[in-house]
Amino acid sequence: MPAILPVSADLNERACFCQTCLSKTLAEKLTVLIANTPHDELLTLAGRYRTPPNQQAVLQEYLDYSKENGLTVFSAWYHLKRGSCCGNGCRHCPYPS
């Protein structure tokens, strides 16, 4: 898992840190971060996690995409890591129109 954001658990609650639960928790935190952070700062942050052109991207469910009715829906975080808008009108496109 990429070390994108700190994840803390309330010590009075039992927290699961399996890959699925951790991905869901990070995705929730990323949604808040994306909504409250200037676009330039988000691009800088996401750029650190961009896959080099000569490598195949390893995508994490819930962080980079989710499955809806059998279809893959890319997240805003995925699009930010991509580095630019593809122009396809994606549902979670974080780029200004």
UniProtKB/TrEMBL annotation:
It holds the Pfam family DUF5522. This is DUF5522 domain-containing protein. It comes from Agarivorans aestuarii.
